[in-house]
C-alpha cells in the first residue's frame, strides 16, 4: 500500500511524503513489534491508548525517514482500505491529531519517495532519541516467529492443505496426546505444544495483556484466531485445527489436531479476543 507522490503531511517542521501507513490498535498491530498491543506501543515509545494509533511512514524533503503517529485511526484505516483497492487517497492527518513525529521507520519499507534523496535516518537529535528501525528478522527469534504466524493466518488454505487429518489420529481412532498434535514423543516441539495449550487455557481465566488474543474474519461462520505468548505463537480457525510456532523450534510449524479439548479452547479464546471494529 502506498500513497501518491503528492501525499504529504507536516512533520518535524517539514513536509512528509507518505509511502505507507499501518494501524496500531489492540486488534490490529504489526505483530513483528511485539506479542501484544502494549509491547508494540512500547517499541515506539508510545502510550497504549485505548483506541490506538495510525502510523504514517514517509520521507521528508531531505529524504530522512519519519514515522508520524496520529490518533485519527479512522482516517488512516480509510486510506489503507483505499490503497488496497488500488485507489489514490490523500492521507493528510490534521496537525492537531498528530501525537508524535518519530525519526526512523519501525518497519521495512521497500519503496522511496521520488525526487528526494534515498531513505536515511535524520541527523541525530538527543530530544528525539535513537531512530526507529525494523526488528532483526535475519535469525529465528520472536520477530521471525510472529512473522511466520502472520503468513499462516494470511495463507491459511495453503498451509491447511498440506496437513493430512489422518496424521492426528491414533490407531484406535481416538485423538492423539496433547490435543492430537502430530509428531513422535521425541519431537522437540511436543513439550512446547503442551506448554502453549496450557498457557492459552490460562488466558481464559486470567486475561493477558491487550492484543495477546485477536480474532478476525474467516470464511463461512468461522473466525481466525491469533494468540501469542512468551516464546510462542498460535494460529487457528475456530472450526478447524491450529498451528504453533516456537522460539525453541526454529523454522518449524507444528500442527495441532482438533482432539477433545481444542474446539472448546478456541471458542473460549474467541469470546475474549479483541476484534477489529
How would you portray this structure in words?
With 277 residues, this protein is an alpha+beta fold. The chain has two domains: 96 residues, no CATH class; 131 residues, no CATH class. Helices cover 25% and strands 22% of the residues. The N terminus is likely disordered. This is Integral membrane protein.
Number of helices: 7
Number of strands: 10
The largest pleated sheet is described as:
5 strands, antiparallel
Strand content: 15-25%
Provide the domain count.
2
How far is the N terminus from the C terminus? 20 Å
- The largest sheet has its strands arranged as 1-2-3-4-5
Rg for CA atoms: 21 Å
Structural class: alpha+beta
Structure summary:
This protein is 25% helix and 22% strand. By secondary structure, the chain is an alpha+beta fold. The strands form 2 sheets. A 5-stranded antiparallel beta sheet has the order 1-2-3-4-5. A 5-stranded antiparallel beta sheet has the order 6-7-8-9-10, with helices on both faces.
Indicate the topology.
Layout: E1 8-11, E2 14-24, H1 37-43, E3 53-59, E4 65-70, H2 73-84, E5 98-103, H3 142-154, H4 156-160, H5 177-180, H6 190-205, E6 213-217, E7 223-229, E8 232-237, E9 242-246, E10 254-256, H7 262-272
Antiparallel strand pairs: 1-2, 2-3, 3-4, 4-5, 6-7, 7-8, 8-9, 9-10
What labels would you give this structure?
277 residues; alpha+beta; 2 domains; 5-stranded antiparallel sheet; 10 strands; elongated; Integral membrane protein
Amino acid at each position: 500500500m502506498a500513497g501518491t507522490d503528492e501525499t504529504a503531511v507536516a512533520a518535524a517542521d517539514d513536509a512528509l511524503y507518505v509511502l505507507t501507513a499501518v494501524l496500531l490498535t489492540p486488534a490490529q498491530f504489526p505483530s513483528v513489534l511485539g506479542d501484544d498491543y502494549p509491547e508494540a506501543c512500547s517499541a515506539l515509545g508510545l502510550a497504549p491508548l485505548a483506541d490506538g494509533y495510525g502510523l504514517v511512514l514517509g520521507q521528508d524533503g531531505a529524504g530522512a525517514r519519519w514515522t508520524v503517529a496520529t490518533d485519527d485511526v479512522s482516517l488512516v484505516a480509510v486510506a489503507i482500505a483505499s490503497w488496497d483497492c488500488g485507489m489514490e487517497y490523500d492521507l493528510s492527518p490534521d496537525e492537531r491529531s498528530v501525537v508524535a513525529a518519530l525519526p526512523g521507520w519501525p518497519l521495512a519499507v521497500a519503496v522511496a519517495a521520488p525526487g528526494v534523496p534515498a531513505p536515511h535516518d535524520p541527523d541525530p537529535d538527543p530530544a528525539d532519541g535513537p531512530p526507529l528501525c525494523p526488528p532483526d528478522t535475519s535469525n529465528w527469534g520472536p520477530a521471525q516467529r510472529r512473522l511466520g504466524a502472520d503468513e499462516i493466518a494470511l495463507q491459511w488454505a495453503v498451509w491447511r492443505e498440506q496437513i493430512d487429518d489422518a496424521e492426528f489420529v491414533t490407531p484406535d481412532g481416538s485423538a492423539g496426546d496433547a490435543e492430537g498434535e502430530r509428531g513422535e514423543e521425541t519431537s522437540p516441539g511436543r513439550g512446547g505444544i503442551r506448554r502453549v495449550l496450557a498457557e492459552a487455557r490460562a488466558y481464559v481465566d486470567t486475561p493477558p495483556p491487550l492484543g495477546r488474543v485477536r480474532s478476525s474474519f474467516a470464511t463461512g461462520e468461522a473466525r481466525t484466531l491469533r494468540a501469542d505468548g512468551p516464546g510462542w505463537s498460535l494460529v487457528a480457525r475456530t472450526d478447524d485445527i491450529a498451528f504453533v510456532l516456537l522460539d525453541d523450534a526454529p523454522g518449524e510449524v507444528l500442527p495441532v489436531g482438533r482432539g477433545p479439548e481444542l474446539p472448546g479452547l478456541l471458542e473460549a479464546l474467541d469470546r475474549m479476543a479483541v476484534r477489529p471494529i
